Amino acid sequence: MRTTLSLSLAALFLGASARTAEEQNALSDPTAECAWYDYPPVTNVLASYPPIGTPVKGIMPGDSAGQAKFDSFKANIPNIAPRGVDGAFATDALSKYDKTDPDCWWSFSTCAQPKLAGLKPDIFDVPEPRTLGYGFDDGPNCSHNAFYDLLQQNKQKATMFFIGTNVVAEPLQALRAAQDGHEICVHTWSHRAMTAFTNEQIFGELWYTMQIIKVVTGYTPTCWRPPQGDADDRVRFIAQQLGLQNIIWKHDTFDWHVPAGQSTPEEVQKNYDDFIALVGKGEFDHVGAILLAHELDNYTMQTAMDNYAKLVKAFDHVVPVGVAFNKTQPYVETNLTFPNFQQYISGQSGGSSGTPSGSGKPSGSGSPSKSGSAANPSNTTGQQGGISAGVSVKAPAAMALALLGAALVL
Ligand SMILES: [Zn+2]
């Protein structure tokens, strides 16, 4: 099930007032947080970006930098056929696939060790024992202030896997993530199955998400997570050419099952409890964990908040994934440095060194002005669990889109 928004962005950005980052971050009412606002640094460049909420068709006209980058490696892309069209799997993709898994297709076998020479393995756990690589998918969410406030109050950083479409719709929320010192990674433009795209579409889904994150935060990510975990060696090759490390997971809260109507909060809480119990059983005494959870809606964020103290109590350390790997330069730009693991855990226990430092603190690249309205067409599709993806469309956004005459196809 998917959401397709076919609409004129210009229509969406009409009529709302501007807002500063400080004003946005100070809001506590989720409805107010999600009210549309104008953000000129994004609206001014939207014409050169793909439409939001829909699969990227390819490199945008006039994008000479993107075209040159793609041309620089396209002849070397492994010859693996797309497994569907426009990010939607062909119905027989799995059943027809070679059972020997020649392409290291994660959705088929959870293969994370590429079979093609020269490709880096996927990351699915962290090397530090009794440590949680803490992260969230599908953001930025428009009403994430309570969740981010809790993290901030605890000097807790996390790895945020942002959807390009959501960064367009919620730029100030994306900016807050950077300013709070979270590690931002790419979660594609339209949140579809990456192996079901053409080579150029895969490139575009990653490239334009990287670019819009740079527009908003000033920084270009060097990590990504495929929606549904769906990657094979063709997808990995293209991502690696863009300097993106694939980060997946080994443990899953299945929190997205609740907004998708496939589970109850009690069942998700049991997933958290069972995961936390593994710490006491010694499961992570030698290698730490990565747990899949979502910044998908108010429920998943509240559940993350409800379980934060339990995770901190159970694990020796809760850190961003990059920190667990001593990745002190998380972005392409080198003027921002993250703490290494030792610096982070010493800072987290009372000091102040556990925060990013550098000359280039993330800041808004333009002051809000005049009209326009950042819409909130947050059609963040839910996560994995095999081949199907849940869908969550915020009611106010859906209503607004309907009022604007947009086509909303579920
Ligand atoms: Zn996702």
From TrEMBL:
It is found in: Cell membrane. Its cofactor is Co(2+). It comes from the Eukaryota. Residues 347-388 are annotated as: Disordered. It catalyses: [(1->4)-N-acetyl-beta-D-glucosaminyl](n) + n H2O = chitosan + n acetate. Residues 130-326 form the NodB homology domain. Keywords: Carbohydrate metabolism, Cell membrane, Cell wall biogenesis/degradation, Chitin degradation, Cobalt, Glycoprotein, GPI-anchor, Lipoprotein, Membrane, Polysaccharide degradation, Signal. Residues 354-373 have a biased composition (Low complexity). Its EC number is 3.5.1.41. Its main location: membrane. SUPFAM superfamilies: Glycoside hydrolase/deacetylase. It is an enzyme of class 3 (hydrolase). GO terms for biological process: cell wall organization; chitin catabolic process; fungal-type cell wall biogenesis; polysaccharide catabolic process. One of its GO terms (molecular function) is chitin deacetylase activity. It is a lipid-anchor; GPI-anchor. This is chitin deacetylase. It comes from Favolaschia claudopus.
